[in-house]
């Protein structure tokens, strides 16, 4: 018999470990955490700081506003969190990073876990990004005050895809982005609500017709709302 798979392992490096699990302790991800389907370790970067004041940041070389997280302290925090042979990818949450996409999320869910560094202040010294091979990931084109919420977003997206976490075996394969399209509209009872009805085809019992309708609606919504995705999926205008 195969040994049970080791749980997907998340290590967060942050100045605010008490923020975790936060919302990830609720609902789907919270239940999965309690059931040991994934594990979470939030480590305080400040524990790797030395000196009387345990400073983790310093003023930017070259001048300018704000503070920068020090390469030596951050590297020590990463090293302390990484046992020999640990093959997990290492990330830095960063508005400069590659935008997080469902394909990358799916990839990650198939791996052993992730080590995620959460920036604060102006960000981190460039040398530690290079020196520790950090992959920069962005959750969107806006600036957060810290990487913690970004890390939670990334973890939430991954955890729901781990084996046994979502209820229906196939929910997750029909969703937005899975086929490069946005998802079709959903309806449930009541059949009539404020003068609006559920589209007849969904009540017809004709599964082929329902599939066609859903596909058409997914294509229509994607063209209207996300011409970039429509072009990638090869949909004509
Ligand atoms: N000066 C930086 C912004 C720093 S914001 C710049 O202009 O690029 C502080 C921290 O918040 C960052 O180090 C990063 O960890 C996190 N952060 C901010 N916006 C983010 C985003 N869109 N995606 C992921 N992390 C983000």
Automatic annotation (TrEMBL):
Specify which residues bind S-adenosyl-L-methionine according to the UniProt entry for this protein: 119, 139-144
Recall the GO molecular function terms of this protein's record: tRNA (guanine(37)-N1)-methyltransferase activity
Q: Does the keyword tRNA processing apply?
A: yes
Superkingdom as given in the UniProt entry: Bacteria
Query: InterPro entries, alphabetically?
Result: Alpha/beta_knot_MTases, tRNA_m1G_MeTrfase_C_sf, tRNA_m1G_MeTrfase_TrmD, tRNA_m1G_MTases_N, tRNA_MeTrfase_TRMD/TRM10
The UniProt record lists the EC number as 2.1.1.228
Keyword Cytoplasm assigned: yes
Domain annotation tRNA methyltransferase TRMD/TRM10-type: ranges: 10-231
Matches recorded under Pfam families: tRNA_m1G_MT
**What do we know about how this protein assembles, alone or with others?**
Homodimer.
Question: Any idea what this protein is called?
Answer: tRNA (guanine-N(1)-)-methyltransferase
